[in-house]
Amino acid sequence: MRLLVLGTGMMAKSQVAGFLAIDGVEVVGAVDTDRTRLDEFADHFNIEKRFGTLDEAIAWGRFDAATNVTPDRVHHATSLALIAAGKHVFCEKPLAENYAHALEMTEAAEVAGVINMVNLTYRNVAPLQRAREMVLSGELGTIKHVEASYLQSWLVSRAWGDWRTESRWLWRLSTGHGSNGVLGDVGIHILDFAAYGAATDIDHVFARLKTFNKAPGGQIGEYMLDANDSFTMSVDFANGALGVIHATRWATGHLNELKLRIYGEKGSLEVIHRPNGSDLRGCFGEDIESATWRDIDVLPVLTNYQRFAEAVRTGKQDDPTFRHAANLQKVIDLAIVSEKERREFNLLAADTPESTVGGQEPESKGDEQGPALALVV
What we know:
Residues 350-377 are annotated as: Disordered. By secondary structure, this protein is α/β, with parallel strands linked by helices.
């Protein structure tokens, strides 16, 4: 596979390192509007062909696939251009800023017949893959309850860098710079972590979002710090289970931790992923009576990079697809509507794109039982 890298920032370095470790993958070109950053990146990875625009790279054309590591708001236009050129696309998450754009990208890729995948990186967590296998095999019985959390501390710690002075963090706090906050940034990860691990789709969601004051006047330089810092969701899953999903950047003491607990009638599982490793524990059989949890061994799994390269080689689509990521974006879009309206919405799946992102309010009905937001993915 001859690979083009679109965008040469921090995540691109991680991606290229992963791709170059795969036999048969050659990084043949890089694109960035910042020439200094582009040259530093290309020099580091010995990439000869360098382009200031995607149009130049497409005109050159001597690549099979591209990894799109541009800022979130650029994913839509650039991915559509690559698809129109017949190139396979590996896109960073989130797929787009809203469901309408994500769906357009999905349908374009499917019509063109190109391989399309989204880098939901926590699919690389072997304990998550094993947990899903155990759920699907029936080892937990019927799933009743799911808990999932994504905890970061970079608003209270400088371990990641100083968000007060560094643009690479400040933009994530500003809706005017294309951010949907923690919900849009890591929400897609924990939604996928929960639904994929529990082997079911999210069916209904009600969300609360919170933005905390972080600077005088809520602004630092050109950055208005108005994006959400924390969210909580109560969800129903398609298999009938009830769930709670939450994430925050104010989790003091947690650099980057994802946790998933799946409770079934025959047993339970817990997946924990931290920067220093991942674990899977379970409680089954006689251990249920004493609430004893035991470690479960897992085997290594293929990375998203490996599976994308193999999909391009064979022409056989693999997960996570653009369509899956678009469905997750639908949940995120509706969560924002849920917080804004604080009332019940009856939304048919076919009406979701226009009603939530097209400037029209979805049809709503009052309900004395309290607020909820219906969604089918």
